[in-house]
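Morning!

This is the sequence you dropped in the shared folder:
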Amino acid sequence: MADEKNEAKAPAEAGGAVRGVYASVPADRATGVPEAASARLAWTDGERSLEYEARAAHLEVRDDAGVLLGRMFSLSYVAVDAEGMPDVSRPVTFAYNGGPGSSSVPINFGGIGPRRVATDGVRHVRADAPVEDNPHTLLVDSDVVFLDALGTGWSVLAEDADPKKIFCTDGDADAFARAICAWLTENGRWSSPLYLFGESYGTVRNAALMRLLGERGVQLTGVVMLSAVFNIAGLLNPGDDLYYLGMMPTFAATAQFFGRAGAGVGEEEWFERAMAFAEDELAPALLRGDRLGEADERAVAERMATFIGLPAEHILAHHLRIDLLDFRTHLLANEGRVCGRLDTRFSSDAPSPMQSHDMWLAGEDAADDAVEGAWVRAFRRFCADELGYQGPARYLSNNYDKVNAGWDWGHEEPGLGRVATPNVSLDVAVALRRNPTMKLALIGGRYDAATTWWNVVHDMSCQFLSPELKSRVSWYLYGCGHMSYVDVPTLEAMGRDLHEFYERR
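The structure's back. C-alpha cells below.
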C-alpha cells in the first residue's frame, strides 16, 4: 500500500545488511518457497461474467550472470476461455503498491482485483466484512499480475543477496524488471500489450521502470500512476517550500469536509480555488521569507485561514508553513480527534498526551487502520481456501524495519547522474520521448495527504512536454484519499475511466 506509516519520515540513508528475511520460515527445500497453487474461478457483476485462473507463485529474480537475487511472490489473474486457455492478445498489467516496504494486497483486495473487501464510506471496516466480486475490477480490461517487492509479503531475498543492492530505488526497479520479464517468458505473453499499475512509491517504481524496460527492449503500451509521488525531496521533507505548497490544497479540502471552511462552495470548485491560492498568493509569500513584511504576511495568513480552518494567529506563528502533523493534530483538536493521512476524511480519537513522540504520531493513521487488516485477512483466506496455497505463517504486508528503514533513495537520474533524492518525473519524460506511442494515466485524490495532487501537477509541468506528448497523458482527480478504491463512488468512476484508458488505441 502506500501507504505507509513510515512514509511520513524523511528519506533514510542506506542501513546495515539484512539477510535471510525468511530464514526461519519453513519452505520447500528445492526452491526455498512454497509450491505454486492455482484455481479456475468465475467473476460476475450481475450483467457480465468471465472465467479466470488465479495463480499464486514465485518468480525467480536473477542477475545477468544467472545469480539468484530473490524470489518474488506473484498472484496472477488471467482470463481464460471455455477450454481454460488465455487470450494472448489481451493486455497484461503488472500491479503493485508502494512503501517502498509494502505488499500488493491493498491494490488487489482493496482496489482492482476480481475480489474486493466491502467498505463503508469513511468508517472502520469490520473484521468480518464480506468479500465480494469487484464490479469495477481491472480484470475486465486486462489480465493482472500483482507483485510483492522483495522483502515484503511472501517475497524473499536469496540467502547470499546483499539487501543494500535491492532495498534502493534502482535495485528495486531492476528486480521488478527482471521479475516482469520472467513472468512474460514463463507464461508465453511477450505478444500481449504491456501495462504497469503502481500506487504511491509504486509510481516511483513505475517511473524508473518506464525508462529501464525501454532500455532493455521491453516496450510498454501504458502506465497507470495512482497517487503519484515524483519529487521525493519536495514532498517528504518539511522545510521545502514545495512541500507546504502541495499540502495547502489538501488541507483546504479536508477543512471543507469537516465543516471548518468552504461552506456553500462545491468540492471541485473549492479545491480549484485552493490550488490557485497556493500558486498565486502563498508561493510568492513563501519565496520571500522574512522579506515579505509583517503586514503582508498577516494578510496571507488571514486568507489562508479561511481555506484550511486553522486560526490566522497559528498560521502566523509558523510563518505560513503548516506541516501535515501540525494540521492533523489541530484541525479537530476541539473534538479530541486526529484526522488521517492517507485519507484525511478518516479520523480517530486523539492519542494520550503522554504519547507525544512526533514520529510515532506521524505514523498513526486512521485511514490505514480502518482497512488494511481486513484486506490482509481476505487475501490470506483466498490463498489458503480457494487456491490451496500454503504460505508462511507471517505475511509481511508492511516491512518497515527491514525495507523502509534501510532504503537508499539515491538514483541515476537521466541526464543528471546520481542524485541523493530523485525527481523521477525526469524518468517519465525521458520514457515518453523515447516511446511516444505509450499512454500515461495520472490519478489522484483531493484528500490524499501522503502524495498531494499539486506536487505531481507541478512536477510534470516542469518537464515541458510537447503538445503531442501531453496528449498521451490523461489526468483524473477524484474526491477521495490516497487509496482511491476505498471510496465506492470513486471506484466506480475510476473503473469507467480506466476502461476508457485501456480501450484507447
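Headline: DSSP finds 17 helices and 16 strands in the chain.

More detail when I'm at my desk.
O.
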